[in-house]
Design brief:
By secondary structure, this protein is α/β, with parallel strands linked by helices. The protein has 2 domains: 3-256, Type I PLP-dependent aspartate aminotransferase-like (Major domain) (Aspartate Aminotransferase, domain 2, 3-Layer(aba) Sandwich); 259-388, Aspartate Aminotransferase, domain 1. It contains 11 helices and 12 strands. The strands form 2 sheets. Strands 1-7-6-5-4-2-3 form a 7-stranded mixed sheet, with helices on both faces. α2 runs parallel beside α7 and α10 (320-329) runs antiparallel to α11. The termini are far apart.
Length: 393
């Protein structure tokens, strides 16, 4: 899409951005080009390193280039690097921005595998200082910054407990100290939140989820606010051999074309179901940032333009066997990790919640739902039957 069309709405841009090059006989989609070796006309061309020229398959072919362009347009990014998974999209920039003796500030509600990487690799193997902070700390994070702090890592909302980080305050204090900020932005898919516009340096995505939309591809993306920042990540990805296949890039790009309409349906169904759950006596609390009673609703309303299909709810205090019975009774909700696909999923979260900055406290067990494309009333009926097992085994 040309710059003159940037005034178009988000759905139009998502459909038309990064469509196939006219050189490909006006195909709607870019072709899948599978290639490792690229041939040169002359031996002297092998080491000419002409800007824009492709020298090896790791640089990507048509589908990878198109996907990077589409994500950059949606995120408002200067550059995008693709990663082989959502986890790799988090760990790759953490490594690229680390430095000997460095200190990293990590939101305490961060994605569990990212936390495991910070502890098991960055701290235990590389000797970095890893400090977790209260996700609601806001500007008070300044008191935790050290001269050797090299990264501030955020996730908003947290993908289990749904706290919202104050991105404006944190980006302001980070920029004043020239500390790179990263956010796992998978919950919003880059559709409902534009962190780069708020001053965050890198927006990280598990494209596995809403971008793909069909639970059949694993991929991640790293969108950089500046060209210089993007070059740091791209160089590190090149040096470490990180890349994605042309087939997977093609599938993710295909999924992105319908992501906007899928998200709008999933978001509305999720909000309706969250409101329904909040009225039930067997539910102690619903963790959905778009509900006015959510502790961070005001920040969510300020920074986001919508909510995705992922949220949680806390049951009244019941034994674990009751929670398992409830989940096992569900017919339409699959029991599985990940989210953002066309199908609805449910998990119990307590076994994987880990906190060090502030203890996690709740009235009862935490359940997370990913709302898919099923009819909302059918999902409510399924949840009703499941919740009834809490009192009627």
């Amino acid at each position: 899409m040309s710059d003159e069309n940037n005034k178009h709405g988000p759905h139009t841009r998502l459909v038309h951005t990064a469509s196939a090059d006219p050189a490909y006989n006006k195909l709607v989609n870019p072709p899948i080009e599978r290639a490792s070796t690229m041939l040169f006309d002359k031996a002297e061309d092998l080491y000419a390193f002409t800007p824009g020229a492709r020298y090896y398959g790791r640089q990507g072919t048509a589908s990878q280039y198109a996907l990077r362009k589409a994500i950059a347009d949606m995120e408002g990014a200067a550059a995008v690097t693709l990663a082989p998974s959502g986890l790799a999209a988090c760990t790759l920039p953490l490594l690229a921005l680390s430095r000997p003796g460095g200190h990293m500030l990590i939101s305490d509600s961060v994605y569990g595998p990212t936390r495991a990487f910070c502890d098991g690799v960055l701290r235990d193997q590389h000797g970095l200082g890893i400090e977790y902070f209260d996700p609601r700390i806001g500007a008070d994070l300044a008191a935790h910054i050290r001269p050797e702090t090299c990264v501030i890592f955020l996730e908003s909302p947290g993908s289990l407990t749904f706290e919202i980080n104050d991105l404006k305050e944190i980006s302001k204090l980070a920029q004043a100290r020239q500390i790179p900020t990263l956010i796992d932005n998978t919950w919003s898919a880059g559709w409902f939140l534009k962190p780069l516009a708020l001053g965050i340096d890198y927006s990280l995505q598990a494209a596995t989820k809403y971008h793909t939309g069909h639970s059949d591809v694993i991929m991640g993306s790293i969108a950089a606010r500046t060209k210089e920042g993007g070059r740091v990540i791209a160089d590190y990805a090149r040096l470490t051999g990180n890349m994605v296949s042309p087939d997977d890039a093609w599938l993710v790009l295909r999924g992105m074309r319908t992501m906007g309409v899928r998200l709008e349906r999933q978001a509305q169904s999720a909000l309706d179901i969250a409101r329904w759950l909040s009225a039930r006596e067997d539910v102690a609390q619903v963790l959905h940032p778009a509900l006015p009673e959510h502790p961070d609703h005001a920040i969510w309303k300020r920074d986001f333009n919508g909510a995705s299909g992922l949220f949680g709810f806390i049951l009244n205090d019941v034994p674990e066997e009751s929670v398992l019975r409830f989940l096992d009774s569900l017919k339409l909700f699959g029991l599985g990790f990940s989210w953002g696909g066309y199908e609805s999923l449910a998990i119990h979260c307590d076994p994987q919640i880990k906190r060090t900055a502030r203890p996690w406290q709740a009235a009862g067990p935490l359940i997370r739902l990913s709302i898919g494309l099923e009819d909302k009333d059918d999902l409510i009926a399924d949840l009703t039957a499941g919740l009834n097992t809490l009192t009627t085994p």
